[in-house]
Amino acid sequence: MDDALLHVLKDSLDKKLRKESFEQALGKAVRRQNLDFKVYIDIMGELRERAIKEKREVEDIAQQLLAEGHKDS
After folding, report:
1. Looking at residue 69, what is its pLDDT?
2. Is CB count within 10 Å lower at the N or C end of the chain?
3. Tell me: the pLDDT tens digits for 21-39?
4. Is residue 62 exposed (0-12), middle (13-18) or buried (19+ Cβ within 10 Å)?
């Protein structure tokens, strides 16, 4: 996942409310950054694909990608 999409993920996780789903938080982050709905679909598609493959939650995969992204920096 490229740096711009990782930034959207970070924003969504940082500003996620306690009772809010990850998907809602991601949607808000996409709108805050004035990005297209296609960006949301692309991110969620990749996250869901990995979550199914690894049998984990989407939010866990997002956190893992962010951790990996910080290691590469």
Report:
1. 79
2. C
3. 999 999 999 999 999 999 9
4. buried
